[in-house]
Design goal:
The chain has 287 residues and is an all-alpha fold. The chain folds into 2 domains: 96 residues, Orthogonal Bundle (DNA polymerase, domain 1); 156 residues, Intergrase catalytic core (hpI Integrase, Chain A), CATH 1.10.443.10. It is 52% helix and 3% strand. The protein has a two-stranded antiparallel sheet. The relative contact order is 0.10.
Length: 287
């Protein structure tokens, strides 16, 4: 017999389950919101306990989202969230059956990554040139391919002469990433302007507090606008780093390690978006 539990209580426990299983912050937030939507819909149906939910209820929930304009990609993520929720319910013996497994994912095609042209990323550099902190941030993201969360988490002690140490971040392991001449010069310039602070974070505000991911993202998006670069996002700097090095023949194994990809197949996906590939190389080049 399943253990009786209210849907609202299960939702709260589910969020703790995600944290305890070391899911990324973005996954915890996204899945938590997705299940909150499901809970709200179930309350409209007067279904207050987990064991009352069936396949038809989940289909009705997804149908309502579709009517409200959610894309197939978003619906697919809601299904993933619901399946993760049900895995949690089964582990804790709150249910014996999983109706979410009876729901099929909608078909959709992934949009190709946005890869900046040399003209675009040079314009982005020029737009930020008089801002040492943002110029350094843009240069590091572009020249190393690290994630914005990894950049925000950098400490002064992570800086080496020709490399930076990326600390374990969420489910990503520690790794070392080379610093080329351009990124090293941009960093050195920023460090001469960096506010005096006891805070060990590399990138800080004028008041000495950590420069948060959301604020870094907003600042970069501002420079995209100033440089008149359309439809670009922060992660496109990482895409551009990958595409540039694939084009120049850099070993996919090396590139995968630098990027912190868990699977080589993640790096290989970019091959279809880079039509010409140079001679095999083990040397990272400057953008």
């Amino acid at each position: 017999m399943p253990i009786p539990i209210k849907v609202t209580d299960a939702h709260e426990q589910f969020k703790n389950y995600l944290k305890n299983n070391k899911h990324s912050t973005s996954t915890i937030v996204a899945y938590g919101k997705d299940i909150a939507q499901l809970v709200s819909f179930l309350e409209e149906l007067q279904k207050h306990h987990v064991h009352e939910i069936n396949k038809e209820d989940i289909e009705a929930f997804l149908g309502k989202l579709t009517q409200n304009g959610y894309t197939p990609k978003s619906i697919s993520r809601k299904i993933n969230s619901t399946r993760t929720f049900y895995r949690f319910l089964k582990v804790n013996e709150y249910v014996t059956d999983d109706p979410s497994l009876l729901i099929s994912h909608p078909h959709y095609e992934l949009a190709p990554p946005r890869i900046l042209t040399p003209t675009e990323y040079r314009a982005l550099r020029d737009a930020a040139r008089n801002d040492p902190r943002m110029f350094s941030i843009i240069e590091i993201l572009l020249q190393t391919g690290i994630r914005i969360g990894e950049l925000a988490n950098l400490r002064l002690s992570d800086l080496g002469k020709n490399e930076i140490t990326i600390r374990p971040y969420e489910k990503h392991e520690e790794r070392r990433v080379p610093l080329n001449k351009f990124s090293r010069e941009a960093l050195d310039r920023y460090l001469t302007h960096r506010p005096k602070s006891q805070n060990d974070r590399l990138f800080i505000t004028k008041s000495g507090r950590p420069f948060l991911v959301r604020n870094i993202r907003t600042a970069i998006e501002r420079y995209f606008r100033l440089a008149e670069i359309k439809h670009a996002k922060v992660n496109d700097l990482r895409h551009t780093f990958v595409a540039h090095h694939i084009k120049h023949g850099v070993s996919l194994v090396l590139l995968s390690k630098v990027l912190g990809h868990k699977r080589l197949s993640t790096t290989e996906r970019y091959l279809e978006f880079v039509p010409e590939r140079g001679k095999e190389s083990t040397t990272l080049t400057e953008l």
